[in-house]
Hints:
By secondary structure, the protein is of the alpha/beta class.
Amino acid sequence: MLQPPPARPGMREDEVDTPALLIDLDAFEHNLDHMAGLLAPTPAKLRAHAKTHKSPVIARLQMARGAVGQCVQKVAEAEALAWGGIPDILVSNEVVGPPKLARLAALARISKVAVCADDPSQVAAIEAVAEDAGVRLPVLVEIDVGAGRCGVLPGPDAVALAKLIAQSKHLIFGGLQAYHGSAQHKRTVEERRTLIGNAVDGSRRTVEQLRQQGLDCPIVGGAGTGTFQIESASGVYNEIQAGSYVFMDADYARNLDEAGVPVSTFRHSLFVLATVMSTPNRNIAVVDAGLKALAVDSGMPTIWQRPDIRYLSASDEHGKLEVASETTPPKLGEKLRLVPGHCDPTVDRYDWYVGVRGGRVECLWPIAARGGMH
């Protein structure tokens, strides 16, 4: 059930009901512009990953800055974007089951939609729904570039599957999906370069073997916020699927450069606003944002601009904070911004973004694809 928004435009930030999902609009717009600027000199284009923001509003802002489209992980996310007017969507994942595939094929009447496959039976199933719907669907072959999750091996296995797609009357070979997810969060730049170097080599080899079989490869897509600069400079990848860069989270902020300092030039723009609901002693405070308000799979949130306070533990509705003895503890009723450890599943807990600028609420955006698991 859609919940009423926790704020209204013009309200002061400290009046917003909590827990609430805030976007600091100045930092958010910096991130949008910064990514566009970083990719502009490269041959790669941004196909921003909407599994992070789940919002046609944000998708349109990314496309206004040069993104060629959006990618998602679920058909329900694709539906929310297509109904919101986004014209080019890739489901960068396998979709299995006639109901989901039929919904995907139906979207092809209002948007350009594509999907991934890593098995001949998937290709046959996609072809069947495309024929039934009277559409042609682009299908990308997903290759396993080192993540050990989905995908066929680069090289001959990928080429065989691509040829099967290309020979179909109702499908179009769309290219390669070559994403290495676990590489995004390797802390040292050496680790990230090594892993993505292997991904680039496998992708390059597969593209060449496709060419030898007379198959063009329109898309070589992948990369994420942690590694996109490597892929975009590779000369192989032409679509970058970064998503978290719009918000940044506490986990991505731990990635380091050659000097051992945080590498990211993006800013934290997503926060969970929480209220101090209990102060049992001067070293402990409790906020109203726990497991139902924040994803903690990538670690506990950090307290924005308060390094003297540590988010110690979370229960369903409570977050326990540890306050350094030499600092002034937060007051009962005080509002604190929390930086989530993992932005994507945190966003999925909320119905509304509360956009703030200069301490005031400027806008409210619905999170249209919230809960889109199917």
